[in-house]
């Protein structure tokens, strides 16, 4: 909708309007409202505004642990009990084409958030207990950000039962599980590289792990306290172990759980007024409930009440670590228990009527994932078919073609959010894809006033698979329809006359959930030729959006884009058998230098005195001695700190005992870890030191008794990710060119800047005066001036050189544009797709 331009002074302040219903996008030029506008929250149910630490993600486990929905990702609020399915494993045609989607018998076994909550990591498990994979997902949509990687220890596939991180500590990913090739192996704790999926068993495994036949849940408490649940090998009882560090002597407590079986855990970190840390433990139970658990007493404190229906059994759960940066909004779910919820059926597609109707069929089918009603009345859903009973058994007629459309009421899709549609369904039709067309469509009116229909899901594409005798949850992305009022249409068309009598299609429990963006807007260009004499910065009819411009949030307000640096994992080794003789042996990648700490003598690669065809590490000014004795130390220095290091050792003497040690030190010389081993034969053994976080600056291998041979120094490390400044490149968002948005910004004051193309300078608003302006609570303060004659003006969201322009994020804002001009007359440049042109930017 456009409105007529009404002159008014350019310094008019921005009124902040409250709305009972979200308006359509305002592509208008009205002088009483500035384009830099921050709007209040829509009147939806805000799940995560007050109880900021109650946002929990659930990953549904595999069958038979979960009777339905394996691999479904869900966001829920444990304070209110509201549930919002985010991503079904079959929701994406693209992921399936790439081979990324989960198999029907695969679900989640572990779930944790990465640093800052900007990514979600999940481990998988299948009904066949095959090797696990590691998924990296977007918390807003649940979409996979990269190809799944298998979790392996070297080349050995691992089955991971759960993932965990130590709260309030540097990020390190842990898992608990066992090798796939050794079915009866006791569970072990592993450190896992998130990038490659490579895992290394921690050197000092808790002794009580050997008492478990299966470990199911893993979590960490404050200070490295370990929580593990599982089945006891000797009794097959459900047990819960707590190991507290207690200095060098861990204290272990075993809690019997009785009939309750804990299959997953999540920890919530809170701080009191004195900033003391408290860790709360939430468990996922085999019956599908979530329960608070006291690891000190071994008692369940309370079972979380979640809104019906039960979606499945969560293989694991994860609290968002920075919930202030993420909010969840929901429309009231449509479960059809007390009426149609304003859904309407059109059964007039063909001459013979279709069969959509509100039905109490299957209200007593004893299956989860759809509402069943109460004690006094049956549950209801919408059903395409006839002759249904309380436990199923319906069908659709076979002697003519028919079809129908079930339509929702208009649903407002927020214009600055990621929005997901979900619903429970049971589907039984013919297998052939050239009949029984089952689809979900989205109908809306575009900005030109034309009615548009877009197919969202379909059986033929695999995004609405048949269910068998269970209810599944389907999900679809409504984000491309942001800013529109949409109608969801469930379409059933038999096509050719059926020759069998399948059950049909049930639809229930429709949910629309949104995660608002922190800031969003559009960059646009004035090509109308109409002078903008009032300098209001509005997007006028005919002004196209402009793609390829880099917009960033200048967190440090230095006017320079600081790019993010991803987490980097590295590993390597020094094996004397693969290196030539050198005065000083250096790793070819420059990662590690070998030194003798006592004398500074060079390191050599020399024949193994016990096996001349092999080599070992030797020392000396000239070709050195292979045997290391008491007082001689092999020091390995890491220019980049590591979290795990190993060295292979063997006894050099034919008789007697040899005692060797491997010690780890930080950059200040503090000893972090040590492993001591007594060698009684000539077999090679591996010494390992490992700590949480990459803090090992160097290690020392030494001999305390006898003499030894050293070789094969190996190391693993992770450099922490640097989040950098949020950045986006303007693009088409399905509605307009020039769109950008920013996520994961907690409440605060931010400045947006733009990377200017060569030949372009800021024109509107004018560079502000040097004084600092106090930002308003819900909107920005605008600096405007009158343009000089002959200037051409261009619109932009954000700013490149507005040092004083502050954008205040309280809840959700929609940022409108500012004007720019290009003083040259040459043709406009083509924008760069991507963020490469932002890197290395100097002001």
Would you write up a description of this structure?
- This protein is mostly beta strands and 843 residues long.
- The chain has 1 helix and 56 strands.
- The strands form 14 sheets. Strands 1, 23, 25, 26, 29, 32 and 34 form a 7-stranded antiparallel beta sheet that branches. Strands 24, 27, 28, 30, 31 and 33 form a 6-stranded antiparallel beta sheet that branches. A 5-stranded antiparallel beta sheet has the order 9-10-11-12-13, with no helix packed on it.
- The two termini are 40 Å apart.
- Mean pLDDT is 77; it is low at 1-52, 531-535, 586-592, 595-599 and 767-843.
Helix content: under 10%
Q: Quick check: average pLDDT?
A: 77
- List unreliable stretches of 5+ residues: 1-52, 531-535, 586-592, 595-599, 767-843
SS-based class: mainly beta
How can the largest sheet be summarized? 7 strands, antiparallel
Shape: globular
Number of helices: 1
Q: What integer value in Å does the Rg equal?
A: 31 Å
In what range is the share of β-strand residues? 35-45%
Distance between the termini: 40 Å
List how many beta strands DSSP finds. Answer: 56
């Amino acid at each position: 909708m456009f409105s007529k331009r009404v002159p008014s002074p350019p310094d008019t302040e921005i009124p902040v309007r409250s709305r009972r219903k979200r308006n359509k996008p305002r592509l208008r030029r009205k002088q009483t409202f500035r384009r830099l506008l921050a709007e209040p929250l829509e009147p939806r149910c805000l799940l995560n505004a007050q109880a900021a630490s109650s946002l929990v993600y659930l990953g549904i486990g595999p069958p038979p642990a979960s009777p339905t929905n394996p691999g479904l990702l869900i966001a829920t609020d444990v304070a209110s009990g509201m549930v919002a399915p985010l991503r079904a494993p079959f929701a994406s045609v693209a992921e399936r084409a790439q081979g990324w989607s989960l198999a029907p018998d695969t679900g989640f076994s572990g779930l944790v958030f990465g640093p800052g909550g900007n990514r979600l990591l999940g481990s998988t498990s299948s009904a066949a207990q095959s090797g696990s994979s590691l998924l990296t997902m977007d918390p807003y949509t649940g979409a996979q950000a990269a190809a799944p990687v298998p979790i392996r220890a070297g080349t050995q596939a691992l089955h991971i039962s759960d993932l965990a991180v130590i709260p309030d500590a540097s990020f390190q990913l842990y898992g608990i599980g066992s090798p796939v090739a050794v079915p009866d192996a006791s569970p072990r704790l592993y450190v896992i590289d998130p990038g490659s999926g490579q895992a290394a068993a921690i050197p000092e495994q808790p002794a009580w792990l050997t008492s478990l036949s299966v470990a199911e849940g893993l979590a960490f408490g404050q200070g490295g306290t370990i929580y593990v649940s599982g089945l006891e090998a000797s009794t097959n009882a459900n047990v819960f172990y707590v190991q507290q560090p207690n200095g060098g002597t861990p204290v272990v407590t075993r809690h019997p759980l009785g009939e309750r079986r804990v299959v997953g855990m999540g920890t919530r970190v809170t701080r009191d007024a004195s900033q003391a840390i408290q860790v709360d433990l939430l468990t996922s139970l085999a019956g599908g409930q979530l329960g608070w658990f006291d690891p000190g007493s071994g008692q369940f404190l309370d079972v979380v009440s979640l809104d019906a229906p039960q979606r499945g059994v969560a293989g694991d759960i994860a609290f968002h670590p920075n919930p202030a940066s993420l909010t969840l909004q929901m429309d009231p779910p449509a479960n059809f228990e007390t009426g149609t919820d304003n859904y309407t059926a059109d059964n007039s597609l063909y001459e013979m009527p279709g069969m959509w109707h509100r039905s109490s069929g299957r209200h007593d089918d004893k299956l989860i994932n759809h509402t069943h009603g109460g004690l006094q009345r049956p549950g209801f859903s919408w059903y395409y078919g006839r002759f249904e009973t309380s436990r199923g058994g319906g069908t659709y007629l076979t002697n003519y073609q028919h079809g129908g459309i079930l339509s929702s009421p208009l649903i407002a899709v927020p214009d600055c959010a990621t929005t997901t549609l979900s619903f429970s369904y049971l589907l039984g039709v013919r297998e052939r894809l050239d009949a029984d067309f089952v689809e979900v469509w989205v109908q809306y009116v575009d900005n030109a006033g034309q009615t548009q229909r877009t197919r969202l899901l379909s059986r033929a594409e695999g995004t609405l698979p048949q269910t068998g005798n269970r209810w599944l949850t389907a999900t679809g992305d409504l984000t491309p329809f942001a800013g529109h009022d949409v109608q969801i249409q469930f379409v059933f068309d038999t096509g050719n006359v059926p020759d069998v009598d399948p059950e049909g299609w049930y639809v229930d429990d429709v949910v629309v959930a949104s995660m608002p963006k922190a800031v969003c807007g559009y960059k646009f260009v004035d090509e109308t030729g109409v002078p903008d004499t009032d300098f209001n910065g509005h997007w006028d009819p005919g002004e196209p959006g402009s793609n390829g411009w880099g917009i960033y949030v200048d967190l440090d307000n230095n006017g320079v884009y600081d790019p993010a640096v991803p987490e980097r994992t590295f590993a390597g080794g020094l094996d004397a058998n693969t290196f030539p003789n050198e005065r000083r042996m250096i790793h070819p990648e420059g990662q590690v230098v070998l030194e003798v700490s006592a004398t500074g003598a060079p390191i050599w690669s020399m024949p193994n005195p016990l096996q001349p065809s092999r080599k070992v590490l030797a020392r000396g000014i000239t070709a050195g001695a292979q045997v290391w004795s008491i007082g001689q130390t092999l020091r390995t220095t890491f220019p980049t700190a590591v979290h795990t290091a190993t060295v292979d050792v063997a006894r050099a003497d034919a008789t007697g005992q040899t005692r060797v040690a491997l010690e780890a030190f930080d950059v200040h010389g503090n000893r972090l870890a040590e492993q001591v081993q007594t060698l009684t034969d000539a077999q090679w053994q591996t010494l390992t030191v490992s700590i949480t976080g990459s803090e090992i600056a160097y290690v020392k291998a030494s001999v305390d008794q006898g003499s030894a041979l050293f070789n094969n120094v190996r190391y693993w490390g992770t450099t922490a990710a640097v989040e950098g400044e949020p950045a986006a490149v303007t693009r088409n968002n399905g509605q307009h060119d020039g769109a950008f948005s920013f996520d994961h910004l907690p409440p605060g004051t931010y400045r947006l800047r733009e990377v200017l193309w060569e030949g372009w300078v800021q024109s509107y608003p004018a560079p502000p005066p040097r004084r600092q302006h106090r930002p308003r609570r819900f909107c920005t303060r605008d600096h405007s001036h009158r343009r000089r004659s002959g200037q051409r003006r261009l619109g932009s969201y954000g700013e490149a050189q507005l040092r004083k322009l502050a954008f205040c994020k309280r809840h959700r804002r929609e940022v409108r544009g500012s004007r720019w001009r290009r003083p040259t007359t040459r043709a406009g440049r083509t924008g760069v797709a991507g963020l490469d042109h932002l890197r290395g930017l100097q002001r």
